[in-house]
Amino acid sequence: RPSQHTTLLFDRIEIRLRSNVCSNNITPIHYSRSKSLALASPSDDVQDTETSKPSSTFKQDVYNVATLIGAQSLLIPIAVFIAQFADLPNIGLGSQFQLGSTAFVDGLRWTLPLFGVALLLRIVEPYSEALKDVTKATQRSVLSVLGSTRRPFFALLVSCILGAVAGIGEEWLFRGVLQTSLVDKFGSSSISLAVSGLVFGLLHAVTPVYALLAGAASVFFGYLYIITNNLAVPMITHAVYDVLALMWAHWSVTALEREEMDAILKDYPQAPVLSTNTYKEGHLNVSDDEDDSPKVYNS
User: Which of 64, 101, 217, 224 would be a feasible disulfide site paired with 234, CB 3.0-4.6 Å?
Assistant: First the structure.
C-alpha cells in the first residue's frame, strides 16, 4: 500500500504532466484514481481502439439482444403457469386456437389499420412534442439494442426474433389469459378490454402518450381475439407490426447525425425492459457518474 508521501508525489507528477501536455503537446497520459501512470503514443491509442471496437460492440449488441429476448420470453411461461392455475382451456391459448393459412392471412390483413394509424401519427408528429418524445424513446431503445450502425441483415434477424417473441408472449398473457379471465369473472367483453388495455398501457408507460398508444393497441388486439376467437390472429398481427416497426425505427435512427444520437441517448427515456446505458461505436457512456476507468489527457 503506498505511503502518504508516495501518494502526494504521484499527485504532483500528475499535475505537472497534465500541464506539460496542455502546453507542449507531448504524449498523452493515462491516469486513474489508483494513481497508476502510463505513457501511450497517439498511434498506439488509435490501434487499440480500432482493434477492440468491433469486438466490444458486437459483444454488447449480442448481450443487449439476448437480455431483451430473455425478458420477453419470460411472458410465455408466466402465461402458461397462470392459465394452468386458473384452469383456462388449452393453457390460455383458447379452445379454437389454430395456426394456419387463414390465421396468417387475417393476421397480415389486420396490420393495415395499425400502419394507417402510424402514418397518421407520423404526419401529426412535427406539431406535437408529446409524439416527438414517443419517437425519441423508441429510437433510444432501438439504439440500445441494434446499435448506431445500419446493419440491415442483423437488424432484420433481431427484429424477427423480438417481434415473434413479443407477439406470442404478450398476446398469450394479456389476451389469452388476462382478457379471458376478466370475461369469465365479469361476463363483459367491454370490461375485459378496458382493464387489460389499462394494464398493458401502464406496463408500457415510457411516456404518458406512449402508454396511451400501447393501451389503444391492446384494445385493438383484444378486439381481434373477440371477433376471430383465434388467438393466433392477434399474435401474427402483433408480431408482423413489431418487426416492420423495429426495422423502420432502425433505418431512421441510423440516418441521424452523431450529435442527434448523443441527445437521444442522454435526454430521452427508453422502454422499461431496457436498462443499458451503453453508447455504441466507442461513444461515451451517457451516465453522469464517474468511474475508475483510465482517463486520457490530450492536448
Answer: 224
For residue 112, the model assigns a pLDDT of 97
Residue 237: CB partners within 8 Å, gap ≥ 6? Answer: 107, 108, 110, 111, 114, 167, 221, 224
Per DSSP, helices labelled H in the chain are 4-24, 42-73, 75-86, 101-109, 111-124, 129-146, 152-170, 180-186, 189-203, 208-228, 232-253, 258-267
Q: Looking at the DSSP assignment, which residues form a beta bridge with residue 297?
A: 29
Can you name the residues that pair with 31 across neighbouring β-strands?
37, 295
Cα angle 80, 141, 239 (rounded to 5 degrees) comes to 45
Query: DSSP for 158-177?
Result: HHHHHHHHHHHHHIIIIIII
- Nearest by Cα to 147 from 29, 253, 6, 39: 253
Cβ count within 10 A of residue 50: 10
